[in-house]
Specification:
Elements: H1 2-29, H2 43-52, H3 62-69, H4 79-93, H5 97-103, H6 119-128, H7 133-140, E1 162-165, H8 175-181, H9 187-196, E2 203-207, E3 212-216
Antiparallel strand pairs: 1-2, 2-3
Length: 219
């Protein structure tokens, strides 16, 4: 009888010895996290993010920038003006409408004629309608500017000094200023503006203190 109990006990130990590694192996193969607790982004979330990150400014490549700026001598800008220009370019290339609006001078920023819309709304609507507003902002700021005292003060505070992009939008544009426009505009448009001595496309005004006071097209 004792021999029988010893045999039963040995059999039980053998069963446990086999079962434990099997159970441990199963747990080791299981994932460490609950996959249902971290679902993949929904299509609506992905689409919404993509729409916010897409605009004409994001299509500007480094090659395009290099071509537009090619051959120009570096213009010495005051630190405040250079910093504002760099931030404008960065915001436009990343489609950051909120940052662009924040960079606008509160006192008298002009972005259109006759509209009191929020500039973010205006720019978004223009982009949605197929007008590459932000791309033109970026490329315009890589054209040579006109600097004080040649800068025009029209449409801004009398006596203020402005850095204006492109130089063709200044008071006395030179032949080279009109030629520079051919890097981003059609020959026909540039010829018309040159003959009329009136540049009507997008221009950017930044005052000597670094305030962005104008980004507008038209007359």
């Amino acid at each position: 009888m004792p021999d029988k109990r010893r045999l039963l006990l040995a059999a039980a130990v053998l069963v446990i010895a086999v079962a434990v590694p099997v159970a441990l192996t199963k747990r080791a193969d299981e994932p460490n996290v609950d996959v249902e607790a971290t679902p993949a982004p929904s299509s609506s979330t992905t689409s919404e993010h993509r729409s916010e990150a897409t605009c004409s400014g994001s299509t500007v490549t480094d090659g395009m920038v290099k071509n537009v700026a090619a051959g120009d001598a570096a213009v010495a800008l005051p630190p405040a003006v250079a910093e504002r220009r760099a931030r404008l370019v960065a915001a436009a290339r990343t489609c950051d409408y909120d940052s662009l609006a924040d960079l606008a001078a509160d006192r008298m920023f002009q972005f259109t004629y006759g509209s009191d819309e929020d500039p973010r709304v205006f720019w978004r609507n223009a982009e949605a309608a197929g007008e590459p507003v932000l791309r033109m902002l970026v490329l315009t700021m890589y054209l040579p500017p006109v600097t004080p005292p040649e800068g025009s003060t029209s449409g801004a505070d009398p006596g203020s000094r402005y850095y204006i992009w492109p130089a063709a939008a200044g008071v006395n544009p030179k032949p080279a200023d009109w030629d520079a426009l051919l890097r981003i505009y059609d020959d026909e448009d540039v010829a018309r503006w040159r003959s009329e001595r009136n540049f009507l496309a997008y221009r950017v005004f930044i005052d000597a203190d670094g305030n962005w006071v104008q980004f507008v097209a038209g007359d």
